[in-house]
Amino acid sequence: MNQPSSRSSATEAPQGAEVPQDSDSARLRDLGYKQELRRSLGVLGNISMGFAVVSPVVALYAVAMVGTIVAGPAWVWALPVVLLGQCLVVNVYSELASQWPLAGGPYQWGRRLLGPSFGWMGGWVWQFAVMFANTTVAYLAAPWVFALFGITPTPGAMVAVSVAILLLCMLVNAYGIRILRLFVSIGIAAEAIASVLVGFALLLFFREHDFVLFTDTMGAEELSGGSTAMAFLAAVAVAGWAFIGFDACVSASEETKSAGRQVPRAMWWALLSVGVVVILNAMAVALAHPDPESAVLGEDIDPVTTAVVHSFGSWSDKPFVAVVLVGFLACAMASQGGAARGLYSLARDGVFPFSNQVRKVNKRKAPIGGLVASTLVSGTALLLGLNATAIGSLIAFGTAATFLPFFLVSLAALIARLRGSWIPSGHIRQGKKGTFLNVLAVLWTAFEVINVCWPRETLAPPGAPWYQVWSGVLGTVVILAAGLAYLLVKRPQDRIRNDKPAEAGGERSPEFAAEPS
């Protein structure tokens, strides 16, 4: 088993070695770790990881139908609101990634900002949010497999195909970051066709309505008691799913050259590029749809495909399904890779269950232990797909849980700034402006956590049981309670402070051992 190294055990790079690579390895040694993953990504490779996970195709299909039902065509205004809020989060993440370019960002940053207990809990919540998000992406990708072959799926068949998708993604990831980057690049090419080209074509040549359409709710607010404000808040909650996943860039930090400089840039490029494409396509689909009112009433459960096939003709059905499926698969592969690297980051410190196994890296320098563990968790959760109510609850929880780590990281950064215990010292240092934007990031993420978790019958299927309506709150409480129980019983925070953590073995660097308790 590979052992974490200390400064004393690290060897110096030979003269003539590539400077960025040598600097990254030295920085990693300073932070208490040995270079175990293959550092081969440039800034474009890192951007592709974030772009694939945020994914304009997945984002649009995940939110277009529900957004239209809860707020009508006017729901598209929720997208720039959420995009602006997420820019505040990326701003905080950029300062942190610039100073500490490590896989498993929420865990690594949290323990340095507010101590090991807070850092571990942040890592725990983020890890399960990502693994359940992988479950959601695999489950949402499965219908496209059946659509490609014109088959009507049963619940059992949906689960079987979803599991097959997870296993395929694990296999690709196991071959290392270079193969993963290749598959993700193919997915991005599909995204370009399905999002950019189709979106512009719909907007320029197949428009059925004027832009005034976006001032009309078409009565959708009746689902929110007649309140347009409440309908818009529901749309903001739904739109939150569209702009998550940029932290996949952070997960690949230890495989990115000049990570302290390139990862912050990659996050900005990934979020903003996807943001522009999603807003473009949401508007294009609404303007090209032959009957927007049917989408508002829930009669058209796939308004995106309806707009495309109506505009381009029936011949476009199967090709469009194919490129959308490729986009979903690329998203699932990159997201699963991020989850595996987060588990690897926790396990190498011996602070996750079965750390000895989870921290293993294979000969291709892929975190194989994390891949197996994340696939098992995501695959087990797919069994809920045998019951429509259960899988719906999981999807609702996954959205809620994703915003909680954003809030925890932003809060930790703000508290550390105000205490004076953290003064950003990486490539990105924003001073007072950074503190002000950090305050806004905390306010935004706190609002969105509450907004997404808020129990709304409008976001649940008709006749859904109470626990599905409350699934965001219940799921978050369960994950927090499980993490707190593990923290109290197993005390992983003690392993973080110790010079020789149990299960991980090996010495810790002075910087690691001196973390605040």
Structural summary, described in words:
The chain is mainly α and 517 residues long. α4 packs antiparallel against α11 and α6 packs across α7. 68% of the residues lie in helices and 0% in strands. The radius of gyration is 22 Å and the shape is globular. The relative contact order is 0.19. The model is unreliable at 1-21 and 498-517 (pLDDT under 50).
What secondary-structure arrangement, pairings included, does this model have?
Blueprint: H1 19-30, H2 43-54, H3 56-71, H4 78-99, H5 105-114, H6 116-149, H7 155-174, H8 177-205, H9 228-239, H10 248-251, H11 259-288, H12 292-296, H13 303-312, H14 317-347, H15 355-358, H16 368-381, H17 388-419, H18 431-453, H19 466-469, H20 471-489, H21 492-497, H22 510-513
Helix pairs in contact: 2-8, 2-11, 2-14, 3-9, 3-11, 4-9, 4-11, 4-17, 4-18, 5-6, 5-17, 6-7, 6-14, 6-16, 6-17, 6-20, 7-14, 7-16, 8-11, 8-14, 14-16, 17-18, 17-20
| Main beta-sheet strand count, sense and barrel state | none
Structural class: mainly alpha
Number of beta-strand segments: 0
Round the mean pLDDT to the nearest integer and report it. 87
Looking at this protein, list some descriptive labels:
517 residues; mainly alpha; 22 helices; 0% strand; disordered N terminus; disordered C terminus
Nutshell version of this structure?
With 517 residues, the protein is an all-alpha fold. It has helices spanning 19-30, 43-54, 56-71, 78-99, 105-114, 116-149, 155-174, 177-205, 228-239, 248-251, 259-288, 292-296, 303-312, 317-347, 355-358, 368-381, 388-419, 431-453, 466-469, 471-489, 492-497, 510-513.
